[in-house]
């Protein structure tokens, strides 16, 4: 089956051929032509036009041609559903739809700029979408640093620290100083406020005042602590680390400071939270 669309593809006109080859017709042939010639050539070549106005395979409301093909051929693949949000966001400049949309747009625009031949570009596009499909199938929930050598190195350093710390009694003032230092670390973003303001060409006072409006009604330090606790929750759910290890891996000087911050942000004790999650997970597996 032949398919034809406009020349100089970027998003939809690369994603759709991949989707068609993968789920509709493995032997599909794709043709690119000047926009003004697509419909006439479609008749001459007995090809199905797509991603142009006024044809069946095109945009509808807020959805793109990729979405229509999924609906038309009832493609139920979960990874494709994840990809659809990314493709739609990239193709319609709505990068809030998926965190990966802006990246896909940047990569696609770069490829289009570097490769003037549409058919060579399509071949590279297949590689990009094969990779995106593998990510959506197998790696969708995996974070970049999860199980990374860096995280393992931190864990090894932490274990060594525990052994060394256990050899002698730590004075009370050291623990208090740790709390003070940790509080300063938590607020480290405020120390860079001038630099950040300069880079954004904004007044520091204005940036400090406006920041909470767009970051969960939190100031710099509060937002950083919130992100650390979110990382801690992720580690509780996806690793076997102890709470002390998790506290270290998320930037807290000790478990007591981690516990206080966790309760402040979530209203729950981290041990109770972890036990509750593990029990829920076990109950789910037993059903």
Order of helices and strands: EHEHEHHHHHHHHHHHHH
Q: Compute the number of structural domains.
A: 2
Helix content: 55-70%
Average predicted local confidence, pLDDT: 81
Computed Rg: 26 Å
Write the layout of secondary structure elements.
Blueprint: E1 2-6, H1 12-23, E2 29-33, H2 38-45, E3 48-49, H3 65-72, H4 78-91, H5 101-114, H6 118-139, H7 149-165, H8 172-186, H9 188-191, H10 193-200, H11 204-214, H12 220-238, H13 243-249, H14 255-266, H15 270-286
Parallel strand pairs: 1-2, 1-3
Helix pairs in contact: 1-3, 1-6, 4-5, 4-6, 13-14
What does it look like?
- The protein folds into 2 domains: 2-139, no CATH class; 149-286, Orthogonal Bundle (Arc Repressor Mutant, subunit A), CATH 1.10.10.
- It has helices at 12-23, 38-45, 65-72, 78-91, 101-114, 118-139, 149-165, 172-186, 188-191, 193-200, 204-214, 220-238, 243-249, 255-266, 270-286, and strands spanning 2-6, 29-33, 48-49.
- The chain has a 3-stranded parallel beta sheet with strand order 2-1-3, covered by helices on one side.
- The chain is elongated and about 85 Å long.
- The chain has 15 helices and 3 strands.
- It is mainly alpha-helical and 287 residues long.
- α1 (12-23) links the parallel β1 and β2 (29-33).
- The model is unreliable at 184-191 (pLDDT under 50).
- α1 runs parallel beside α3, α1 (12-23) packs across α6 (118-139) and α13 crosses α14 (255-266).
């Amino acid at each position: 089956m032949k398919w034809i669309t406009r020349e100089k593809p970027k998003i939809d006109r690369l994603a759709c051929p991949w989707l068609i080859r993968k789920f509709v017709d493995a032997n599909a042939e794709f043709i690119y032509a000047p926009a003004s010639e697509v419909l006439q050539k479609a008749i001459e070549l007995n090809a199905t036009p797509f991603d142009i106005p006024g044809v069946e395979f095109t945009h509808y409301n807020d959805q793109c041609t990729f979405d229509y093909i999924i609906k038309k051929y009832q493609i139920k693949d979960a990874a494709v559903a994840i990809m659809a949000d990314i493709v739609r966001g990239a193709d319609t400049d709505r990068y809030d739809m998926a965190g990966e949309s802006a990246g896909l747009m940047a990569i696609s625009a770069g490829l289009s700029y570097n490769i003037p031949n549409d058919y060579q570009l399509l071949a590279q596009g297949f590689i990009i979408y094969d990779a995106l499909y593998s990510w959506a199938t197998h790696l969708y929930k995996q974070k970049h640093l999860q199980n990374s050598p860096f995280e393992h190195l931190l864990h090894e350093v932490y274990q060594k620290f525990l052994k060394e710390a256990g050899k002698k009694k730590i004075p009370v003032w050291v623990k208090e100083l740790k709390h003070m230092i940790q509080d300063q670390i938590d607020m480290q973003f405020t120390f860079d406020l001038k630099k950040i303001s300069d880079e954004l060409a904004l007044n520091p006072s204005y940036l400090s005042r406006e920041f909470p409006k767009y970051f969960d009604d939190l100031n710099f330090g509060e937002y950083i602590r919130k992100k650390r606790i979110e990382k801690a929750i992720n580690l509780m759910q996806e690793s076997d680390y102890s709470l002390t290890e998790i506290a270290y891996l998320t930037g807290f000087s000790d478990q007591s400071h981690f516990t206080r911050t966790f309760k402040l942000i979530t209203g729950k004790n981290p041990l109770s939270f972890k036990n509750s999650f593990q029990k829920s997970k076990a109950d789910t597996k037993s059903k």
